[in-house]
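Dear V.,

Thank you for sending over the compound details. I've combined the ligand you provided, NAP, with the protein sequence from our construct and run the structure prediction for the complex. I'm sharing the raw inputs here so there's no ambiguity about protonation or stereochemistry in the SMILES, which I know was a concern on your side last time.
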Amino acid sequence: MGLGSIGSMLAGYLVENNEVYGVGRAWHINAIRGRGYLLMRILFKSEEKKVKLAGVSSSISDFQDQLFDCIFVCVKAYDVRNALRELVDNNVKGTCYVFIQNGIGIADIAKELLGDANIIRAVTNNGANIPEPGIVNHAGLGETFVGGMYGSEKEYWARRVSESLESVGLPAKYVDNIRYYLYLKLTINATINPLTAILRIRNKGVAEISELREIIAGVCREIEEVARAEGIRLKNTFKTVLSVAKRTGENISSMLQDVLRGRRTEIDFINGAIVKLGRKHGIATPFNDMLYKLVKALEKAKSYEA
Ligand SMILES: NC(=O)c1ccc[n+]([C@@H]2O[C@H](COP(=O)([O-])OP(=O)(O)OC[C@H]3O[C@@H](n4cnc5c(N)ncnc54)[C@H](OP(=O)(O)O)[C@@H]3O)[C@@H](O)[C@H]2O)c1
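Below is the predicted structure of the protein with NAP bound, written out as structure tokens.
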């Protein structure tokens, strides 16, 4: 559900061992249908793969009343609620649902709409993009952590999802503390993403511009405090952020790309989520609040450009 960048990439690998169907937007689906396959370019191997899915559609109603083993929900965080409503309204069910979004709070939205379903969370370090309709680039290979969040068979399904990814060549690991991995990635997304988007800089700027140190430290400290109140112990987040910014130095972060394209960002589920949780636990989060508000303003800034 949501055959975009990461959804197309996952589908491109999973077809090897599974019957995979994809629901996405008409511009991508029509190009796949026109060509007869989804073209996946594995950039780090200089390989191309012609991917034949069992079925693609731009309308979930084509799958009405069907039950799938596993539904990968691959829309952006702010579209999860709508995508799930469409699934529910069309009586499309999964024995489990996998959520791959960056950010936190997604599984709770899923629980609200799906009740007792097996809700699996995945944190992925792969990189994918769609350079043109019908084509997906797998730009960077990274590990995916998979863990159960809700449902009576969550552990069984999280293990199966992790094994399925591994079996098609995508490094994956089942973890019994997926919330730790969600918060760890959140720390990186809550610093590198907004700072690169606000300043319009490549990731290495976050590591090299000394004036940013105090801000990064403040954001990290607040996230560590909020995480502790939620029962998660994070350590050395400041150092981790700097080393990731250095290692991915030439990258243009996904949030900066969204801002440059005039698209909505996922800030509500990143710094915005920390501000909300801070309020719930009585923890002050001024650094996260400032970055959150600046990025929200950025989303509206296009029509005010000087
Ligand atoms: N791309 C990566 O490398 C990467 C890496 C790690 C994590 N992630 C996470 O993965 C999630 C997805 O990111 P992405 O980069 O794959 O986003 P994306 O390229 O925008 O893909 C999402 C696709 O789903 C479509 N969509 C939204 N609602 C839909 C619906 N109800 N039915 C059918 N299609 C729908 C979107 O269309 P519209 O644009 O028209 O709404 C878009 O084409 C994000 O939370 C992101 O943080 C991505």
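A first observation: The mean pLDDT is 97.

Warm regards,
I. M.
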